[in-house]
Amino acid sequence: MSQLSEKELTTIKGLLAGEELLVKKFQMLAEHADDEELKGKMLSIADKHQGHFNELYAKLS
Question: Domain ranges in the chain?
Answer without folding.
Answer: 6-59
